[in-house]
Structures are given as structure tokens and as C-alpha cells.
Protein: Thyroglobulin type-1 domain-containing protein
Organism: Oncorhynchus tshawytscha
Amino acid sequence: MTIWIALLLATFAVGASAQCKCESMKWATCDGTPCQCSIMVDTGITQNLDCSTLIPKCYLMKAEMYRAKNNLSTRTGGKPVETAFVDNDGIYDPICEATGAFRAKQCNNTEECWCVNSAGVRRTDKGDKNLKCEKLVLPLFANQEKFAPSVDGQKLEMENILVYYVDEEAPTFTMKRLTGGIIAVIVVVILAVVAGLLVLFFARKREQKYSKAEPREMEAL
Ligand SMILES: *[C@@H]1O[C@H](CO)[C@@H](O)[C@H](O)[C@H]1NC(C)=O
Ligand SMILES: *[C@@H]1O[C@H](CO)[C@@H](O)[C@H](O)[C@H]1NC(C)=O
């Protein structure tokens, strides 16, 4: 009888531990009753996760930076598939709010900071540590209804769907970084024009010389 109870308890325990895993994050480790999953985000620092929903991107980026630093496996090149788009600057070590959202100002553990939107993508020029980021800029969702277009009353099937997020507020990049490049282009254009004018000038001078030389030769004859 005790053996049966022990066996029953053992199978129950195995069943429980098999269920205790994170479906939405393969790098998470899960333990305990009730099942709690967490992920390593820094040396000696773990972040508890709610695996019943999508893991916040801020935690994913933190975990990925930690893994890259410690020579653990990461996604190849920060991309899930080769055709995926990546953020303009690549990944950095973000500061996350308690909710899992990105903090509006990010510095990647350096003296250089910038403001991000809710996807953690940079939306301002890079500045120093005193840079002010008023609030986290959210995406603009004008229409929250399910997108289901139809043609002549027939539902339109789509093969490839590309979703563009547009922020509520426009980014505030300035052309500061481009100034050097623009000056270089202007200098090259001016040099090209001057060179062209010089070639034209000398070509015309030579032509004039010939036309002047001809009558003189005639005189001499
Ligand atoms: C990182 O891992 C690879 C293979 O897993 C190994 O060859 C390499 O020596 C490791 N580098 C460091 C710095 O630990
Ligand atoms: C953040 O810093 C790491 C080095 O610690 C670097 O590899 C990475 O490119 C930086 N990311 C950005 C967006 O500056």
C-alpha cells in the first residue's frame, strides 16, 4: 500500500516538474511549486518571468547581452531569421522598468545616452548623461480592430504580412552627424567644377593660339 502511494506521489511529482517549464522563453529556468521561471540578465541577477504571455523585449535584450558576454548561445547575428529587419543600432544592454517596459533613456552602461520608443529603438541623437527623455513614446494604433480586408465580399488571404510600427511622436534626429559628409560632397563638387572650368579655359586658349598662329604663318610666307 505504501509503495503504491509512493509511486503515485512520484508520478505526480514528475508530472508537475514536466509542466514547470517556460513555453515562451527557451533560455529560462523554472523551479518550485508554484512553478516560477526566471532568466539570467546579469552576473548574479535573475529576472522572474510570466511564461503564460510574451516575454518583454527589454528582458530578452538584457538576457541576450548577458549571454553574448558570457559566451553562451544567442540568436545568430541578433536575427531570428536571415530576412528579418534589425534595429538601426543593434542590441544594447537596456534598463528595464519593473513592468518590463524599456526605460525612456538608455545608456548601454556608457556615458553616451539616447531616448528610445516602447520597442527600445533609438528615436533621438545620442547625447551625454544629462540628456532628458520626457516619457516613453508609444506606437500609434489608430485602429485597434482586427485587420480583415475583403474584396467583393470575399475575405482577402495574405501570404506575407509586414507590420510597420509608427510612433505616436515623430523621432527627433538632427542632421548633425551628416554635416561632415555634406561638406565633403560640396568640396568634391566645387573641385570638379573648378577642374572642368580650367580644362575648358586651357582648351580654348590653345584653340585661340592656333587660330592666331595661322594668319602670322601666312604673313611670313
Ligand atoms: C566560447 O565558446 C567557444 C565554443 O563554444 C569556444 O571555442 C571559445 O573558446 C569560447 N571563448 C571564450 C572566451 O570562452
Ligand atoms: C552596447 O555595448 C556593447 C559592449 O558592451 C556593444 O557591443 C554594443 O554594440 C553597444 N550597443 C549600442 C547600441 O551602442
Remarks:
- The pocket of 2-acetamido-2-deoxy-beta-D-glucopyranose (ligand 1) is lined by residues 71 (CB under 6 Å).
- The first strand starts at residue 29 and ends at 31.
